[in-house]
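Our preliminary data section would be incomplete without showing what the modeling component actually yields. Below, a chain of 223 amino acids is followed by its predicted structure, encoded as tokens that our downstream tools consume directly.
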Amino acid sequence: KIKTVTISKNPANKYFVSVLFEYDNQVQEITPNKIVGLDFSMHELFVSSNGISPQYPRFYRQSLQKLAKEQRKLSLCKKGSNNRQKQRKRVALLHEKIANQRKDFQHKRSYWLADSYDAVCIEDLNMQSMAKSLKFGKSVADNGWGMFVSMLKYKLEERGKKLVKINKFYPSSQICHVCGYKNSDTKDLAIRQWECPECKSQHDRDINAAINIREEGRRILSA
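Predicted structure:
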């Protein structure tokens, strides 16, 4: 059933039609070995609980030099002139290209996850707070995690599958997934590898966190 139809125009003067509709969907039974945890990665988008990362290209950063050049040209154009209008469109088209590259990459990875797993577990992160950080501003803008989560959510839901969000304060990076020991030293983001003082297990920071996110997701699903 169609609910709404929206027509919009972007800065590059392209028109789009969005259709919102309702449909019946069956909830799929979750198979325990088809649950995966994803740890957010600033540079790789995510690292999964089975050690997979998508090798995320940094589209925005790759285009910064060209974007700055086109924006300088725009600033030199006389206001109200035809040349300014043309240059404004060139800048808008470059921004659109970067956005489309990011969307294409994220669509492909979210399709793969939704097809491969019955439930995907992630941390419920506040990306706006991270984007405001001087240290992470451009990296968060280039990462697009929020858009990726939205894509993943609707793809899972249309298949009758689940996206499980873990409390953002859950110490996924501090807990040894083997014995449960909590290592507060790993609050330091510079620590990428660590040994559990209790059971001597060796950990990759991101993979260990993703495994803990998966296990916390399993606990939530079974509650």
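DSSP finds seven helices and eight strands in the chain. Strands lie at 2-9, 15-21, 35-41, 45-48, 119-123, 162-166, 193-195, 202-204. Preliminary results of this kind motivate Aim 1 of the renewal.
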